Amino acid sequence: MTTFYDYKNDQQEYSLTVSQFAKLCGTTRDTLRHYYEQEILMPRVDESNGYHYYSASQISSFFFISTMRQAGCSIPEIRDLIHNSSREAIERLTNSKILEMQRELYRINKKISALHLGMWILGEFGGHKKGSLFLQTMPEISISKTPIKNKDFAHHTADIAEDISEHLKKAVDKDSLSIFPTGVTISYEDLVKKHYVYNNIISLSFLPADNIDTFPSEGRFALCCHQDNLSKDIEKTYLKILSYIKKNRLKACSDLYVISLINLYDKEKEHTYFKYLFIYVEPED
C-alpha cells in the first residue's frame, strides 16, 4: 500500500500543487484541506511559503481513503487505521466493511427483485380478461410462509392480523425474506370442501430459495386468474378453478395462492385492490 507519511525533504517527488493533485483525483481543494487537517493525507509543506505539494504516489492513498469513506468508515477510524494499525488490522477492518456492503447489496437486490416480481404480476392483468382462467408458465420464484395459528377461523384479513404482523416482522428481521408481494394461501383440500379459510401468510420472491426460510415453488405451470375487490362473489372463482382442473384432467400441486398486489384509489376516492390467484398444476398420470 502507498505510504501516507509526509516526505518533506523529497521536493522532487512531492511536486504537485494542490490544484494539480485535486484535478488528478477528481476532488476539491476543500476536501484535500480537510484530509490534511485530519492528518490522513499529508502533503509536503514548503517551509518558505507554506505551500502544499503532493506526490503522484499519493493518488492511490486518496482513493483508499475515499473508498473507506464510502464503505462507512469515519474520519477518526481512518486516521487510527493509518497511524496506529498493522497490515493485519487494516485487512480485518476492510473485510468487515466488505461484508457490510455485501449485506447491503443483498438487501438492495431483494427490493429490486420484489418490485420486478410485483410488476410482472401487474403486467399479467393487461393480458387477460378479469375473472377468466388461463394456464401460465410461471417464472422461478421462491416462497416464504408463516402458518396461520387459528386456521379454522381465518376467513377474512381482519381474522389474521396478528399472523400478518408476525410474518412481516420475520421478513424485516431476515435478509433472505421478502415483504412484497404478499398474500395468503388456501389449501386445496379446503378448497374442495368449500371451506374457504386461509392457512398461510406468504411472500414471493425472484431471489433463489435458501431452503431454510424460503422454498422453491411447487411447479412451473399454474392455473391463474386475476380480479379486484369489486368482484363480490369470490366463491364463484374458486368453483371455476376446481371445475377447470377436473374438466382438463389436471392435478393440483399446491395450495391456492391469493396475492393482494396493490391498493389504488380512483378520482372519486373509491378504494380497490388487485388480486392475483394461482395454483400450480400438472397433467394427471
Describe this structure in words.
- This protein has 285 residues and is an alpha+beta fold.
- The chain has two domains: 14-85, Multidrug-efflux Transporter Regulator, Chain: A, Domain 2 (Orthogonal Bundle), CATH 1.10.1660; 109-283, Multidrug-efflux Transporter 1 Regulator Bmrr, Chain A (Alpha-Beta Barrel).
- The protein has helices spanning 18-25, 29-37, 59-70, 75-84, 87-124, 161-173, 188-192, 234-247, and strands spanning 14-17, 44-45, 52-55, 134-137, 142-147, 182-186, 200-205, 215-216, 221-228, 250-252, 256-265, 271-283.
- Strands 4, 5, 6, 7, 8, 9, 10, 11 and 12 form a nine-stranded antiparallel sheet that branches. It has a three-stranded antiparallel sheet with strand order 1-3-2.
- One of its GO terms (molecular function) is DNA-binding transcription factor activity.
